[in-house]
Amino acid sequence: MEQSTGQKIATALVGWGLSLLMAFPILWMALAAFKTESQAIASPPIFFFAPTLENFAAVFERANYPHFFLNSVVVAGGSTLLALIIGLPAAYAMAFYPTKRTKDVLVWMLSTKMMPAVGVLVPIYLMFRSAGLIDTRSGLVFMYTLMNLPIVVWMLFTFFKDVPKEILEAALLDGARPVQQFWMLLLPLTAPGIASTGLLAVILAWNEAFWSINLSTSNATPLTAFIASFSSPEGLFWAKLSAASLLAIGPILAFGWMTQKQLVRGLTFGAVK
Amino acid sequence: MKTLAALLLGATALVGTQAMAETTLTIATVNNNDMIVMQKLSKDFEQKNPDIKLNWVILEENVLRQKVTTDIATQGGQYDIMTIGMFETPLWGEKGWLSEFSEVPVEYNLDDVLQSVRDGLSFDGKLYALPFYAESQMTFYRKDLFEKAGIEMPDKPTWEQIGQFAEKITDKDNEVYGICLRGKPGWGENMGQIGPVVNSYGGRWFDMSWKPQLDTPAWKEGVTTYVELLKKYGPPGVASNGFNETLALFANGKCGMWVDATVAAGFLTDTKQSQVADKMGYAHPPIGKFEKGNHYLWSWALAVPASSKEPEAAKKFIYWATSQDYIKLVAEANGWAAVPPGTRTSTYETPEYISAAPFAKLTLETIETADPTDATQEQVPYRGISYVGIPEFQAFGTAVGQQMAAVIAGQTSVDEALEASQALVTRAMKQAGYLKD
């Protein structure tokens, strides 16, 4: 299946076109962050302009960015770590020592993601209030761990499933205990999968807006609350909102960029046998 | 040794400030320009009250509404001061969720606060919030386009005239649309605009026994007027335009006329944000058949939830933020055109304000003549001009708004949309127990 030069060029063009189309909203936002408010709403849209940093100045003047950033790092990192600590043994047990009910448990876990979050807002809020967890980082870490756990367990489960059982049996014959199997065989074998699961959990927690905005007030507010404070129902705000959004997604974008090799490798892990 | 002394001094200073700041107030507010100014100027309050520290939570309107509603309904006690609207204030006051303003200090001069706004923020004669700013509706138009077409805007236009004017100034080839109005679905978006039009054609949401009235000729006439204007002379994609989208269109010179919130005047006359700042004309909101109820009244107000642990300090801040002195403070910092409008008679008696804001008199007039307790031709069991003052309204108001947006987008007819709306409002009212089967 050799491709002719024409075909190659056509594929490349289509690929680039599609990627540009998908990246356009983000590029447009990045551009708007450096415009004045009236340039940001100008019609027809302006592509060439003298960039200004006034939006960033306004954003920094009004809000304490490092505070939000630190909260995002703690909450996203903490919840991912916790979800992996709980998810790894759970997935291990389900993949290698399944019972009759394992499938049902997996489906049940996933089903908790099917209900819209707002449906349980009031009960969760009440529980958080009683437990003194509203507006605390530990509250958000707890919430995100629960939120990401089904996905983490499912992903890890599929990665573990792809490991031939014979390898583990061989190790067992050599006298390796389950804990040793786990550390010395399974972890190295599925490291890319575990890494991509962790990365996905970080990204999901970083971008989660509903719970973070509703369960935090001022102490534990992550970057999603930071963005929400720059949108306005009355008045022009596109340029400042774009600047705030750029500041909020910048770190996770850079993080994703640096780790994309692991991410892609993990997500296609075991796709071809 | 020097370092040690400096450290000790620093530590003492830290302890000192902690001992001074005994009370922390958490303030939830919307990200509107006037509130951002308040946050900036609040240093003045903190200087005058060194024992009170302010903690700001600024959010977009819908997010804020969801958050403060959750918090107040569960008595979460996260906030000491909430920015709420005229819709919520009487409802929450009735439920006992808000702390009453019963003993307002004499120097606050409560009588100076506009009566209609105070009434809107009261329930059963008890005041539950103080207004930060208030707004009504007016007609904005482009003087240059009117001149070119050889027409003149009367002080109180009718919707019929608006249609005639729109026909004359629409120039779609040059992207000039005769009229821009909101189409975006939402009880506070398109329904906030359509409601007053329906009132003005003699319609109402409910009769005295809470039976929905959306299948009446008055609704049909009001909605048809609104929709036809947009279909014939409106900009493309108008079904998704809310306040900000329409503001952007008008500021870019794409609209000949616009009927909407009076606060838009401030943005449209600001040369930094608007290309048409020197071409602005203002008139009363249009009349269908009756003048009564043809313009709404809205206020963003500051209230203290009953769950606040520091109600006295919170009220102290609210007295500061809604005082005459605060308005003067804004004028000194940002000029008179930037002061929060629509709350105090004294603002409108200040010559500097009247000359800085050419729309000021009209704003005051529309606010004073808007009466949420008497906005319809026939009697109604609810209060509100552009909304129905019951908690269920947010849900069914938005659902009807979606029907209206579908008509504007050409997906359905006025008759079908009103029939569907009547059915869905009837269902909502049965579920809520207002109507028996």
Automatic annotation (TrEMBL), chain A:
Q: Which UniProt keywords apply?
A: Cell membrane, Membrane, Plasmid, Transmembrane, Transmembrane helix, Transport
GO cellular component terms, A-Z: plasma membrane
Q: Which PROSITE patterns match?
A: ABC_TM1
InterPro entries (UniProt xref) = BP-dep_ABC_trans_perm, MetI-like, MetI-like_sf
What does the record say about its membrane topology? Multi-pass membrane protein
Instruction: Set out the biological process GO terms recorded for this chain's protein.
Output: transmembrane transport
Q: Which Gene3D superfamilies match?
A: MetI-like
- Family of the protein in this entry: Belongs to the binding-protein-dependent transport system permease family.
Can you name this protein? Various polyols ABC transporter, permease component 2
Which organism does this record belong to? Answer: Sinorhizobium americanum
Automatic annotation (TrEMBL), chain B:
Statement: the UniProt record of this protein carries the keyword Cell inner membrane: no
Instruction: Name the chain's protein.
Output: Mannitol ABC transporter substrate-binding protein
Compartments in which it is found: Periplasm
Q: Which UniProt keywords apply?
A: Periplasm, Plasmid
Coiled-coil portions: none
Keyword check for Metal-binding: no
Q: Quick one: a GO cellular component term?
A: periplasmic space
Q: CDD domains from the xrefs?
A: PBP2_TMBP_like
Which Gene3D superfamilies did the record assign?
Answer: Periplasmic binding protein-like II
Q: Please give the organism.
A: Sinorhizobium americanum
User: What family does the entry list?
Assistant: Belongs to the bacterial solute-binding protein 1 family.
